[in-house]
């Protein structure tokens, strides 16, 4: 029972810190554009983005 007197304030402090970190992340723009980083890794290294509607050059699909 005495351990609850220590664990409950620690849990409440942990929740407050987690909520503050979430609000900071939302306020600083971490969740503004979730798709940008996913497409950035697929883009060319020289800054030119890969077109989405056509296959990359040299990889033509064969229709049978």
Task: Give an overview of the whole structure.
The chain is mostly helical. It has a domain at 2-40. Helices cover 48% and strands 0% of the residues. The protein has helices at 2-27, 36-40. The longest helix has 26 residues, at 2-27. The N and C termini lie far apart (74 Å).
Major sheet characteristics:
none
Mean pLDDT: 80
User: Runs with pLDDT <50, length 5+?
Assistant: none
Percentage of β-strand residues: under 5%
* Net shape: rod-shaped
Cα end-to-end separation: 74 Å
Structural class: mainly alpha
| Portion of residues within helices | 40-55%
Number of H- or I-type helical stretches: 2
Can you write the helix and strand succession as a string?
A: HH
Number of strands: 0
Provide the gyration radius in Å.
Answer: 24 Å
Topology of this structure?
Layout: H1 2-27, H2 36-40
Question: Can you summarize this structure?
Answer:
With 64 residues, the chain is mainly alpha-helical. The protein has helices at residues 2-27, 36-40.
List keywords for this structure.
64 residues, mainly alpha, 48% helix
């Amino acid at each position: 029972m005495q351990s609850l007197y220590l664990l409950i304030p620690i849990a409440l402090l942990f929740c407050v810190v987690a909520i503050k970190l979430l609000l900071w992340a939302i306020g600083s723009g971490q969740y503004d554009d979730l798709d940008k980083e996913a497409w950035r890794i697929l883009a060319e290294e020289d800054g030119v983005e890969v077109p989405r509607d056509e296959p990359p050059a040299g990889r033509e699909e064969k229709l049978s």
